[in-house]
Structures are given as structure tokens and as C-alpha cells.
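User: I'm putting together a teaching handout on how sequence relates to shape, and I'd like one worked example. Could you take Major facilitator superfamily (MFS) profile domain-containing protein from Arthrobacter psychrolactophilus, show the sequence you're using, and then write out its predicted structure as C-alpha cells right after it?

Assistant: Happy to. First the sequence, then the C-alpha cells directly below it.
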Amino acid sequence: MIRTPPRFKALLIRLIAAQACYYMIVSIDLTLTGLVGLLLAPVPALVTLPLSLIVVVGTLCSFVAGHAAARFGYRPVMVAGALTAIAGGLISAIAVASHSFTLFCLGTALTGGYRAVGGFLRFIASDYAPPAQRERSLALVMYGGIAAAALGPFAAVAASHAALQPYVGSCLLIAVLGIVALCLALTMPPATNTASESRQPAIEIRAQRGNPHFQQAVLVLAGSGLVMTLVMASGPLANDHAGHSATVGASMIQWHLIGMFAPSALSALLLKKYGTFVTNLLGGLVMFAGCAVALFSDSGAAMIATLTLVGIGWNILFVSGSALLLKAYPQGRGSKLQGFSDGVTAGLSAAGSFGAAWLLHQAQWRGVNLIAVAVVAVVLILLTLFNARRREPHLPLAPTPHAEVAG
């Protein structure tokens, strides 16, 4: 049994805390940005613009952040991201206090810049972990999301009533969390953990376009992100259309968030025991089952079951897809690939978020989930074809931290 070095254990704790800050800010954004937009927007068509800017800017910055991390290391990228969160929170608070919609859009755009760097936290853990514990460490960082799921929405609402003017306190809370994230970012190590690897450049994206591990990682992460966001964004609206209570809607989101983060250790165990292909199949089948429930019932219990299973399936696929990405590059040299993968995932997730309301209006709750079922089925079919083409046995991951990966 390999014992984790004490210094890495301390780093892992800091990474989990940083992940909690990240998802707390995301949770506040999801909870209140639309409501503030409704309050400040000059016309109804612009109500969702601030939330859209968070997603769009975050998507664009994901690609930039990957290249920046390759050149400068993780620490300055994480510091820059935390500074944008602080600036975004402060500017948003000033915007709400002064009733300036334009200024609020600037503040949310800056917050979107911070969201682009949160995905690196799990990869920092994998870069510094002992080779046999890379996938497990990646999964453990996800536990920071549990605290955010439990506290984020309630903290956002409580902070909104802390100031004389509604929502100013919530924006200031983002800035405070950004300060905590900055303090944690300053303790982060550089992009690699060995001197020999630090002299080698990050793997180029074009060099890995034909790498099956890279292809499957992008497929799994982007496909599961699209389905998860589509179902999550349309769920509360469908709950309202079905005439269920607000309590059911809150339970739906709460159990969805628990499903997204609580099974991380189980996902890592499945990955270790069965390997990436079988784990991806299991995650896809859980997500498929969750969407399928919605095809037969739109009761409150069925909606909660749908979002819970979709959350669990996403967690399994997210951990397994991230592990596939680890196999596409030598340890410590994957920042460009990480940024590309997170950027594509964020882009498709944004598409799911933007299209959720329109699809729900056109196709109802069952129609939305029928589309989700089809997407999951396509991902599983493509994964099976990839695996059949490689004609390799489905063995658990074998760490190869120092081996070059063929392009």
C-alpha cells in the first residue's frame, strides 16, 4: 500500500477547500443572477444576459487559461481567477446598489472568468498525487462540491437580506469567497511536481487529436455536461409548469447537487476496479435511467428521481472522463489539453442551459428528457465503437506518469 506523503495530504485539503469556494460562487450565481437581472434589466429580453455572460466568458477563458497554465504554471492562473472573482463581486455589488444593469453585466462577466479556472483544481491534485493515486485524488477534490451544495443556496439567500438593499450582500459574499480563494491560490504549487518534467513543455492539442484517450475524454465530459445542464436547467421550470410546490423544486435541486458530488469516492472505486470503459458505461446507464424515468411520469417524486440519477451519472462520467484525460498526457504536462476539454464542455453545457427553456416550451418535460436520452445513447454507442476499434482489454488504469503518449 502506497502512503500519501504528508505534504500532499495538506495540498489535497487546500484543493478541496478551494473547490468548495469555487462551487459556492457558482451556486450563488445560479441562485440569484437571474433574479438580479430581472430587477435591473431595461427590457425583458435582457433578463438572462448577465447569467449568459458568466457562461460565455467562462467558456472562452477556459481555452485561454489552459495555454496560460502551460506557460506560467497553475498558481498565477488560479490567482488571476480569484482576483476576477473579487473584482466581479465588488462591481456587481456597486451595480446593484446603483441600479446599473451595464455595470452588473461587467461584474458577472468577470465572475465568469473565475469559473474558467475551477476545473484545474482536480488536475492539480492528479499532477501532485503519487502515481497510483492520481484518479482517487482527482475524485476526492470533488468533495468540495458537497459543502457548496449544502450551503451555497442558503448562504446566497441569507446574504441577500444582510444589507439594506436586496442582493448587495450576495454580491459581496462572492467577493469574500474570492478573497478566500485568493489566499488558497497563493499556496498552490506550480504546474508540475518534478524538476525533470518542468523542463518539458505542455502537450499540444494538435498532437493528441488522434489519441483515443483524449477523444473519449472530450466525448464523455462534454456529452455528460450537456445532458446534466439541460436537465438541471429545465427541471425547476418543469416543476412549476406541472403545478408542484416550491418545496418539491428545492428538493429537486438539492438532491441533484448531492448526486453530483456525494458519489465521488464510489466513482473512484469503480474506476480502480473496472477501468474507464466499464465505468463510463455504468455512469451512462445511470444517467440514461434518470432521463427515462421522466418519460413515464412528471410527478414530483419522479422529477426528484430524474435529477438525482442524472447527478449521480454525471459524477461517475465526470470522474471517469477526467481519468481518461489523465491517460492522454504524461503527468504534469496536460494544461493545454485540460483547458481545451473544459472549454468544449463549458460550451456544450452553455448550449444546454440556453436551450432548456425553449425546448421545454416546445417539447415539454418528456420531450426534453427524450433528447437527453438520445444524447446519452449516442455517447455510449460512440464509446463502444472507440473501444471495439482499439481492441484492447478493459483493464483498470495503469499509471504511466513518465511515459510519452503517442499522438
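A couple of points you could highlight for students: Residues 335-390 form the longest helix (56 residues). Residues 192-198, 397-407 have pLDDT under 50 and may be disordered.
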